[in-house]
Amino acid sequence: MSLPKISSSSAIQISRIMRPDDANIAGNVHGGTILKMIEEAGAIISTRHCNSQDGERCVAALARVERTDFLSPMCIGEVGHVSAEITYTSKHSVEVQVNVMAENILTGSKRVTNRATLWYVPLSLTNVDKVTEVPPIQYEKKELEEEGKKRYEDQKLERMETKQRNGEFIVPSVNQEEYTVGYSQSSLIHLVGPSDCTLHGFVHGGVTMKLMDEVAGIVAARHCKTNIVTASVDAIDFHRKIKKGCIITISGRMTFTSNKSMEIEVFVDADTLVGDTQERYRAVSAYFTYVSLSKEGKPLPVPQLVIESEEEKKRFEEGKGRYLQTKAKRQAHMQSLTQQ
Amino acid sequence: MSLPKISSSSAIQISRIMRPDDANIAGNVHGGTILKMIEEAGAIISTRHCNSQDGERCVAALARVERTDFLSPMCIGEVGHVSAEITYTSKHSVEVQVNVMAENILTGSKRVTNRATLWYVPLSLTNVDKVTEVPPIQYEKKELEEEGKKRYEDQKLERMETKQRNGEFIVPSVNQEEYTVGYSQSSLIHLVGPSDCTLHGFVHGGVTMKLMDEVAGIVAARHCKTNIVTASVDAIDFHRKIKKGCIITISGRMTFTSNKSMEIEVFVDADTLVGDTQERYRAVSAYFTYVSLSKEGKPLPVPQLVIESEEEKKRFEEGKGRYLQTKAKRQAHMQSLTQQ
Amino acid sequence: MSLPKISSSSAIQISRIMRPDDANIAGNVHGGTILKMIEEAGAIISTRHCNSQDGERCVAALARVERTDFLSPMCIGEVGHVSAEITYTSKHSVEVQVNVMAENILTGSKRVTNRATLWYVPLSLTNVDKVTEVPPIQYEKKELEEEGKKRYEDQKLERMETKQRNGEFIVPSVNQEEYTVGYSQSSLIHLVGPSDCTLHGFVHGGVTMKLMDEVAGIVAARHCKTNIVTASVDAIDFHRKIKKGCIITISGRMTFTSNKSMEIEVFVDADTLVGDTQERYRAVSAYFTYVSLSKEGKPLPVPQLVIESEEEKKRFEEGKGRYLQTKAKRQAHMQSLTQQ
């Protein structure tokens, strides 16, 4: 068997089987899964091309994706074939065209599901602010180069225009004062996938706890702006089960700070989006304690939480109560150990 | 070959190497990664035990985790060993005690990093609302049973009490009226990990697009409450790079609905949390179009977006403009095809 | 841009960038990551071929992987290209040959890292105990068919033989002396999830091999306390299928050390926890060979295994036999190459 030859401008093909985790509960592969495969193919082919001549080593960075239509959904068990080709180069950018095909390996049927055009810019490996030069490609016909140049000019113009489109921030946490509860408060959404679930179709408790710790860590990092690690987790009760296909919102807010620790309250709320009965309910809640570490791994002082309301003050006092209780328990435990 | 039998009460051990994606940029394994391993060990041993006698098949569901301390952080490249043992059973619940040890396989050093206690309840596989009976375990000494019973009573009491702790919803989107922009508006946070990044240490464009599609899909599903799929993505410009260790917030809101499609605007904002210069900036934005599908895969009518402000009205009109423009282009393209 | 044509017997290529999570801390991609990609390519091409004629729909299940050498380690950031081709078919089995190439897209250098031969058996989608018929392939020359037939007969014989290799269970022990078998012996447990499985609901062979390589790597690292990489994998027979929802225990122990290599025996045992019939059975077993590398990537001497029992001595001698046989084969192969 001979090895496939690879030239700097030759096409690349990425193929893989679509798995349950790539799809929604109806079995349709997420558009995002396909976009990720498309970009991986584009990044490989353009990085390879931009390094095909002697000179500075670079990595191609995605600058723009043209409008993309999803002509037909892909399904679990089908094989997605993504093939990419370089179709135009300017001095500092590469145009890649990508075709996506779905193949049902059981019936043998194939269909085109996507076509996409991506623009890459090569950035120097040693100096990421430097754009390196792109080696020119050979065109089969002169018209192909001219059409490419037109696409290049068009996208350049559009990029200029859309650079303005920014709008306000949807999540307004930046407008808050530092060290307040609102400043570090965070929440994330997670769409429950097959691998998150037991044979019953309910979310593993461990998956929920991992997401809770993730949110708590983001809150702690936003507050301290240092390397933070989990020190302890309060008892967690799992009041209600969370079903496959739900959307869960995990929210965290700081409740208390001592000299060297922070307490973060985390809530998990489940939305049964699709189905007969739609409801939203609190599934789990817990307190996480974090500490801030220096680069050498030593505990750092924690900036004190700025309290702005009666509610926050009440929660702070309750947190202080839990903190002092734990401290007392630990000291009693230490004493009992030394007296033995 | 006869394999040694595993007795229902025997211990279980889960071990695995800690990988870059399990840890933060300082190399400390996330507490959540360890909590997830702990729970996996607990779920296996308690499910095995609850099915050890003839009778209804069941899966053990996590009901409660006792307070857990993280004595020392684990690092990338170390092997985490999680060992679990059943220490008490009541009629309908199982107590599992778990020890976590970190082993540096290069130096041979080992240390205890965690101890945890988890409570499971067996749910019937055929009827998830039915709690099945737990086979009793044998205790080496009578005192062990008595101590277990005390822990059981204590946690039962605490569970009753904490069932009340709920507080308000941090993200108040539920209070919104259905079909408004605010009702379906969603955002998710992602902590950029090593596997999200290029050799430069910048996020792959494909990773960003996958998250954008995920948020857009959640917005669309919240609006329609049906099976939804990506129909197209507008041109996306990547204005600014996103660095490893950043926190990115991906937010989506509905801008426009036609009879059979929805347009969702998605923003990606990056926070450079840790480091010398802290800033928050808009990295990417784009419009996604989704359609709603019936169980048979046919397009369904989309509920009309309810507009509540001048801002929303302006965005709706702009969305309508994009929709009509795309439609016109497609018709022109079709005509050019038929005339060829 | 024209679409790639796919015929039932045409080759397939799977390519992707190697990420941090695919590799050890020294940056070398795990052998298991590559075995998983190899098996994915093999499963796609053989399932496609077995469904290329009208008749019962089936999924190709991995039955055996021939001895595989890892000629050179792959690194993070390189692109792995896995190309597979069907080279022989019998009535009920398919032989797939796979080439793996590493491409450094920054320097343009490419090298072959692996060659592998896999055997698949098609199982009916509706009745997994039924093996369906394989459509014959066309051979370019008559000799190719004859050579294939010989390989088919050889592997059939070997499969019969190795079906016996089972041995006792590996039970972990901690407080062992360094360099003994017990000291490095390791096992890990994995709960089979949906994304580990084929459309049938059985674990992909590639998923199993990845876990086997992970355990073997932990055993090797514990013994050497250095950067270790997979050098080769002995032929692996997949005696029994593993079903979704099973718990699998993967155990490894060192059997033999030469001056510069270690042989590790790995067992995969499946527990059908939930379901009508609960049983535990040996599903797969294999020998992995690892080498120890210095920071510069040069092979290091391996500490000799300390033998403590008659059993261990017997396994050591058998390992030595396999080692000498492989060495002799390689030398014969080299001579035949130089004489050509």
TrEMBL record, chains A, B, C:
It is an enzyme of class 3 (hydrolase). GO terms for biological process: lipid metabolic process. GO terms for molecular function: carboxylic ester hydrolase activity; fatty acyl-CoA hydrolase activity. The keyword Flavoprotein does not apply. It is found in: Cytoplasm. The active site is at 24, 213. GO terms for cellular component: cytoplasm. Residues 8-126, 182-296 form the HotDog ACOT-type domain. Pfam families: 4HBT. The keyword Lipid metabolism applies. PROSITE patterns: HOTDOG_ACOT. Keywords: Cytoplasm, Hydrolase, Lipid metabolism, Repeat, Serine esterase. SUPFAM superfamilies: Thioesterase/thiol ester dehydrase-isomerase (SSF54637). Its EC number is 3.1.2.2. This is palmitoyl-CoA hydrolase.
